[in-house]
Design goal:
10% of the residues lie in helices and 33% in strands. It is built from five helices and 27 strands. Strand 3, helix 1 and strand 4 form a beta-alpha-beta unit. Helix 1 crosses helix 2. The longest helix has 15 residues. It is elongated. 48% of the residues are buried. The N terminus is likely disordered. Bound molecules: zinc ion. The site of zinc ion has 7 residues, from helix 2.
Length: 523
C-alpha cells in the first residue's frame, strides 16, 4: 500500500472455484513501497519441484518483455524452477500488460485452472520509461505469486497493528473503490497456519507490501523492497530444493575393485525428479583411468538408454586392453535449461582407426545459432592409442562463431592415436549463471607430475556470478603419460563454493604423468 499517494498494490488471485475472487479489472496494482510481509506459500499450490514453467507474453514492448524476463529469472537462482519463455499455446503463465488494470497474478499451480485464452498475470503500469528498480520490485513479486508465494501480510505469522478505520476509509475511495469485503480479503485476512508454509514475518520480503504508518497504529511500517531478502532466498530454496536427479559421476570402482577388472562397465542412474517433456541430451567426459601398459589404451565412455526417467552410463574397453578402473562425469542438457547445446565428435567420422592421423578436426554446426559466439568446452570421452609410444592426446575447440566451431582431437610427437572421441557443450557467452574454462598441470611451476603426485589449482569465479554454490562438472581434456608404466590418473573437484573451487589431477604408483588438462563447467 505504500503511502497514500501511491496506491499501487498487488492483489493475489485464486481461481473462482477455490475462492471468490476479484475481477482483474478492479484491481489497482502493487508497488512503490508496498509489498506483502514475510514469505509464505499456499500449500495447495506448490509446483512439482524441478518444473519448467512456460511463460508467454500477450503484449508489451520488446523492452518491457526483456525486463520481465530478466527479473523473473531472479527466482531461478534460488528455486529449482525454470521459466521458459515461449510463443506457443501451451504456456501456463500468460502475461498481459493491460494498462491501468493493476499488477496481479494467480498463485502457483492454480494457474492451471485458468482458461487458456485468458491472462494469468498482469502488469498494469510498465512502459519503456519504467525504471529498473520498479521492474525488479514488481516482476519478482508477481512471479513469486506464480511460484505459489502469498502476500506476507496474509501469512499466518503476520501480526500487523492495522489502523483499520484508516485503511477502510482510504481503500473505499478512488482509485480502488473496494468494498469492505474486498479490503478484508486482501488486507486483513490471513491464511490459516495449516494452509501455508511460512517463516517468521520478514518485513524485507519481496512479497511484503510496503506498509505506510498511515495505515497502522503508532509508527509501525515496512520498507519498500525491490530485491529478494535473505529469508526469501533460503525459504524458496527449501520449497524448491536443488535438483538431485543424478550425482553426475560414475566410477567402475563402485561396481568392482580395480584388481578384478572387467572390460564392460555400466550403471543406471535415475533422474529424480524425472524430466517432463523429452529426455535430456548427455555430454560425457572421462575423469579417471587405470589401464595396463601391456596392451593398447582403448577406452570409451558413453551414455545410452536415456529416457525421461533414467540413463545408463558406460565405460568400456575392448580387444586385449585391461581396464582396471575408469570414471566419467556427465552433464545433462535438456528442457531444464535450453541454453545448453551438446554433441559429440569421433575421429572415426574422418578416417578408419587403422589410418591414424595425428591431427583431427571437424566443423560443428549448432542445431540453433547463438546470438553471438558462445562458450564451448570439450571433454575427452574415448581414446584408442598404441602401447609402444607415450600416450598423448588433447581435445579443444577453435574458431567459435555464433553458428558453430571447429572441434579438434590431436596428438603429437611419435604417439599413434588410432581414434579419439569427445563431447562438447556450448552455452551463451552472456549467460549469467554459468562459468567454464580449462586448466593444465603444465601451468604449474614444476614440469609434470612425479609418481604418486597430485597437482591442481584453484578456479575463482568472476565476482558475484553465483549467488549460491554452483554445480561443477569437470573432466579430462588432455594428457601426456609415459607408456612404460600403467596409465593412471584421476581428476577431482573439491571445495566448491559460490566463489570458486579446487581442481586436482592425481597419479599414483609408478605412473609418469608429464601433464594433464581439465575442462570445467560450473552452473
Ligand atoms: Zn502481490
Amino acid at each position: 500500500m505504500a503511502s497514500k499517494s501511491d496506491p499501487k498494490i498487488c492483489v493475489e488471485l485464486l481461481p473462482i472455484n477455490d475462492q471468490t475472487t476479484l475481477p482483474p479489472g478492479n484491481l489497482v496494482a502493487p508497488s512503490q513501497g508496498s509489498g506483502p510481509l514475510e514469505l509464505a506459500l499456499d500449500v495447495r499450490y506448490f509446483w512439482r519441484n524441478g518444473t519448467t514453467l512456460r511463460v508467454r507474453f500477450l503484449g508489451g514492448s520488446q523492452f518491457v518483455q526483456s525486463k520481465v524476463k530478466q527479473y523473473a529469472k531472479t527466482w531461478e537462482s534460488y528455486a529449482n524452477i525454470k521459466f521458459q519463455f515461449v510463443n506457443t499455446d501451451d504456456a501456463v503463465i500468460r502475461v498481459n500488460f493491460q494498462q491501468g488494470a493493476g499488477s496481479w497474478s494467480y498463485i502457483g499451480s492454480s494457474n492451471l485452472q485458468i482458461p487458456r485464452d485468458q491472462p494469468t498475470m498482469n502488469f498494469g503500469w510498465f512502459n519503456d520509461a519504467t525504471r529498473d528498480e520498479e521492474f525488479s520490485r514488481t516482476v519478482i513479486h508477481e512471479f513469486g505469486h506464480a511460484l505459489g508465494c502469498i502476500h506476507e501480510h496474509m501469512s499466518p505469522a503476520a501480526n500487523i497493528p492495522w489502523d483499520k478505520a484508516a485503511v477502510y476509509k482510504y481503500f473505499m475511495g478512488p482509485p480502488n473503490n473496494w468494498t469492505k469485503e474486498q479490503i478484508d480479503r486482501n488486507l486483513f485476512d490471513k491464511y490459516a497456519p495449516s494452509a501455508a508454509r511460512y517463516t517468521r514475518f520478514d518485513p524485507w520480503s519481496i512479497m511484503c507490501y510496503a506498509i505506510s504508518d498511515d495505515f497502522t497504529i503508532g509508527t509501525w511500517s515496512t520498507p519498500s523492497n525491490t530485491v529478494l531478502s535473505r529469508t526469501d532466498k533460503s525459504f524458496i530454496r527449501q520449497m524448491y530444493p536443488p535438483r538431485t536427479h543424478s550425482e553426475g559421476v560414475f566410477r567402475t570402482m563402485d561396481l568392482h575393485p580395480w584388481n578384478d577388472p572387467k572390460p564392460q562397465n555400466s550403471k543406471q542412474f535415475s533422474f529424480d525428479p524425472p524430466y517432463e517433456n523429452d529426455p535430456p541430451r548427455i555430454a560425457i567426459g572421462l575423469t579417471e583411468l587405470d589401464v595396463s601398459k601391456d596392451a593398447n589404451i582403448r577406452v570409451n565412455a558413453y551414455a545410452d538408454r536415456v529416457t525421461k526417467e533414467d540413463l545408463v552410463v558406460h565405460t568400456d574397453a575392448w580387444a586385449d586392453t585391461t581396464l582396471y578402473s575408469a570414471g566419467a562425469t556427465w552433464m545433462e542438457a535438456g528442457d531444464i535449461d535450453s541454453d545448453f547445446q551438446t554433441g559429440e565428435f569421433n575421429t572415426l567420422e574422418l578416417h578408419p582407426w587403422n589410418e591414424p592421423t595425428p591431427q583431427n578436426s571437424k566443423r560443428v554446426n549448432f542445431a540453433r545459432s547463438f546470438p553471438e559466439p558462445p562458450c564451448v568446452i570439450v571433454w575427452l570421452k574415448g581414446v584408442d592409442m598404441d602401447k609402444n609410444h607415450n600416450w598423448r592426446v588433447t581435445a579443444h575447440a577453435s574458431d567459435i562463431s555464433a553458428e558453430g566451431f571447429a572441434i579438434h582431437i590431436d596428438t603429437w610427437a611419435d604417439t599413434t592415436l588410432y581414434s579419439g572421441a569427445a563431447s562438447w557443450i556450448a552455452y551463451p557467452a552472456s549467460k549469467k549463471d554459468a562459468c567454464s574454462g580449462f586448466a593444465d598441470t603444465s601451468m604449474q611451476k614444476e614440469t609434470g607430475l612425479e609418481a604418486q603426485a597430485e597437482k591442481g589449482g584453484r578456479v575463482v569465479f568472476p565476482e558475484g556470478m553465483f549467488e549460491k554454490e554452483p554445480t561443477v562438472r569437470l573432466a579430462i581434456k588432455s594428457f601426456d603419460f609415459d607408456h612404460e608404466h600403467n596409465l593412471r590418473f584421476r581428476a577431482d573437484v573439491k571445495d566448491v563454493s559460490k566463489e570458486g573451487f579446487q581442481w586436482t589431477v592425481s597419479s599414483w604408483a609408478d605412473s609418469v604423468c608429464y601433464g594433464a588438462g581439465i575442462s570445467y563447467l560450473a552452473f
